[in-house]
Amino acid sequence: MRMCGIRAQLLALGGAAFFVVGCGGEDGATSEKGSAQIFVEAEDTIPNGLAAGMGDEDIQDGWSVTYDHFLVAIGNIRASRSDATETLSAPDVYVLDLKKVPAGGYVVATFEDVSATRWDRFGFDLPNAKPGAKGLGDTAEADVALLVDNGYSLYIAGTLSNGATQKSFRWGLAAGTSYDDCATEDGIPGFAVPAGGTVPVKPTIHGDHWFFNNITAGAEVTARYAQYIADADANGDGETTLDELEQTKAADVFPPDKYSLAGVPIETAYDYVLAQARTLGDYQGDGECPTRKVLP
């Protein structure tokens, strides 16, 4: 039996460490090499908000939404091959301000000199931020501290509008989740590294899932509603807080003729928001990462 040594290559980009681990020859490593650049992009709903209307992407009960803040923690980028022992790993965690996402996205990892073939297993984490998480680009240090100090994976703030009526929200959530087996919208798993070239790989963060009328587990075939947020403002002060969501029974704000919440225990409006926050990680735009696990 051939014993294969482990090859570890440390690459540097902007102070971050990336590892390529594997062995050559019979394990399927190829002689041709290329690169993969991993960058995080924001769905248009984050910088542009959502409009009221009856279109497929609109909120259909009269509300529109704009975001003032949309912060996420992301990291532990990984890829592997089902036909080989090679693995790619970028363990760093970043806090990103997706309202300020640059045109080319936030580059969070670059894997160089890797086998030019299909890496059919790709995953990443949206973890609860811990000390050591770093900001990128125009992400403010205060925003990094906000997530790290509170152990949040996500912080959003914005305003709902319906005519002259407005409701604000500021929600920080410890909704840490891992996403694996990512595939394109066409169901093609992972990514293919071209010989002598670079493939762009795009974890994509969506900004509309808490308006869905179901807990998405695949293709986003759904209507969007926001009335439950307004209804949960129990004291009528114009802001719907997480505490108010926790006090709002799901049966009171999610009518069964509009919502299908089967498969996930949803007792309160907060349960619904938390469950949806664990579905935000998509791939290459509207592709899915169906293997999800809750992170501590």
Verbal overview:
Helices cover 12% and strands 37% of the residues. The strands form 3 sheets. Strands 1, 2, 4, 5, 8, 9, 10, 11, 12 and 17 form a 10-stranded mixed sheet that branches. The chain contains 6 helices and 17 strands. It is mainly beta. A hairpin with a 2-residue loop joins strand 10 (154-162) and strand 11.
Quaternary state, please?
A: single chain
What sequence of helices (H) and strands (E) makes up the elements?
A: EEEHEEEEEEHEEEEEEHHHHEE
Major β-sheet profile: 10 strands, mixed
Poorly predicted runs are: 1-15, 19-27
The fraction of residues assigned to DSSP E strands is 35-45%
- Number of distinct helices: 6
Shape: globular
